[in-house]
Design brief:
alpha+beta, nine-stranded mixed beta sheet, 26% helix, 25% strand, globular
Length: 189
């Protein structure tokens, strides 16, 4: 269990992954609506491996797609955070922001709250000139959040995801970015 990281917002805690996160994460990964734009259902072994990968990233990089917990009751809601972009994609050498929430947590502003906290943390704790996000072209909810966060589409960076088989409708991906300079800065007196 990795307890080295904890980021709090008004309603959420973003933190390292615990063993008891695996069961609700696996349940999320088996929900066809949650996985609609992400691929086939996750096995329990997939969920355990994801926990281990994320905790290893916390150790090596200081950040990952952190587990998201609701402060009011400690419920596991999903993940949100930063990680290195996937190999073989246009963002392989960049920082990627990403999120995935359980369906019961949709429509309540949790993804935006967690994503904004992740961006803020990234600007304060990394030297990244920008932060990128990718999603399947049909995932309107995801790219809609990217736009609400102030990210802009990088049409030249759109790509077919190499981890998705040829001919699969989930293969076409779009790329969004937000630059460090795009952050609003307090006016100087």
């Amino acid at each position: 269990m990795i307890e080295r990281f904890r980021l709090e917002t008004g309603r959420l805690i973003l933190r390292g992954w615990r063993d008891d996160d695996v069961a609700p994460f696996h349940a999320m990964g088996y929900d066809p609506e949650v996985m609609r734009y992400l691929g086939p259902p996750m096995s329990l072994a997939d969920a355990e491996a994801a926990r281990d990968r994320m905790n290893a990233l916390i150790v090596s990089r200081g950040y990952c797609f952190w587990a998201v917990e609701r402060r009011a009751d400690g419920a596991f809601l999903g993940f949100c955070g930063l990680k290195p972009g996937p190999e073989g994609t246009p963002i392989a050498d960049e920082i990627e922001i990403g999120w995935r929430l359980a369906r019961h947590a949709w429509g309540q502003g949790y993804a935006r709250e967690a994503a904004q906290a992740s961006l803020d943390w990234g600007w304060k704790n990394t030297e990244a000139p920008d932060i990128a996000a990718i999603t399947n072209i049909d995932n309107v909810r995801s790219w809609g959040l990217m736009e609400r966060l102030g990210m802009t589409r990088d049409h030249a960076g759109d790509f077919d995801h190499p981890a998705v088989p040829l001919g699969d409708p989930l293969r076409p991906h779009i790329l969004y970015r937000i630059a460090r300079l795009a952050i609003s800065r307090p006016a100087t007196p």
